TrEMBL record:
<protein>
    <recommendedName>
        <fullName>tRNA 5-hydroxyuridine methyltransferase</fullName>
        <ecNumber>2.1.1.-</ecNumber>
    </recommendedName>
</protein>
<keyword id="KW-0460">Magnesium</keyword>
<dbReference type="GO" id="GO:0008757">
    <property type="term" value="F:S-adenosylmethionine-dependent methyltransferase activity"/>
</dbReference>
<feature type="binding site">
    <location>
        <position position="128"/>
    </location>
    <ligand>
        <name>Mg(2+)</name>
    </ligand>
</feature>
<comment type="similarity">
    <text>Belongs to the class I-like SAM-binding methyltransferase superfamily. Cation-dependent O-methyltransferase family.</text>
</comment>
<dbReference type="GO" id="GO:0030488">
    <property type="term" value="P:tRNA methylation"/>
</dbReference>
<feature type="binding site">
    <location>
        <position position="64"/>
    </location>
    <ligand>
        <name>S-adenosyl-L-methionine</name>
    </ligand>
</feature>
<dbReference type="InterPro" id="IPR002935">
    <property type="entry name" value="SAM_O-MeTrfase"/>
</dbReference>
<keyword id="KW-0489">Methyltransferase</keyword>
<keyword id="KW-0808">Transferase</keyword>
<dbReference type="InterPro" id="IPR043675">
    <property type="entry name" value="TrmR_methyltr"/>
</dbReference>
<feature type="binding site">
    <location>
        <position position="81"/>
    </location>
    <ligand>
        <name>S-adenosyl-L-methionine</name>
    </ligand>
</feature>
<dbReference type="GO" id="GO:0008171">
    <property type="term" value="F:O-methyltransferase activity"/>
</dbReference>
<dbReference type="InterPro" id="IPR050362">
    <property type="entry name" value="Cation-dep_OMT"/>
</dbReference>
<feature type="binding site">
    <location>
        <position position="154"/>
    </location>
    <ligand>
        <name>Mg(2+)</name>
    </ligand>
</feature>
<keyword id="KW-0949">S-adenosyl-L-methionine</keyword>
<feature type="binding site">
    <location>
        <position position="34"/>
    </location>
    <ligand>
        <name>S-adenosyl-L-methionine</name>
    </ligand>
</feature>
Amino acid sequence: MELSDGYIQSFIQPRNTLLLEMEAYAEENHIPIMQLAAIDALNQLLRIQNPSKILEIGTAIGYSAIRMAEALPHVQIVTIERDTERVTAAKAYIERSAAADRITVIEGDALEVDDQAIHTIFDAVFIDAAKGQYQRFFEKYAPLVASGGVLYIDNMYMHGLSDLDLKDVPRRKRTMIRNLKNFTEWIMQHPDYTSAFLPVGDGLLLCLKR
């Protein structure tokens, strides 16, 4: 039996004034941020893993970076975003948060950023950027993840589109969904990772590096 969305929502953790402001800003400006149930689940997984360094691909306005930093008081986060307006908003919000000294924003296309410039190994990577590029993000940044580290990947369901035959997907989104399906099949069979879906929010994929 499936739990109702309303029942799940009743257990969402309360947020501070800054986060509520960011949620309102994201809704008003049509900026996608992680669903509340999903970010709560992600943060609980991160608490269990207890990483000291996290790399985030897709900052948007900094919402998930701040949420992760609040959940892990000692974590250092590097987050990459290519949209200049979103970078500006993210930096402003992060500066107002209690985690400003633990979050570094890098402006640029994550597929073009020189990973040598990051120059560190991460315990976890959170990917929440262009869905059709997930495999390319994974291949570029997985080498920066320590053995035993985890890659967390959001929006695997793509609001139900991933469950459809490609002929039933709107034409403008078919390439993205095809790439997402191909990535899913590829990572599930990858010998260097143990992967599993968490059916929360818009679908969260966990990939444990062996």
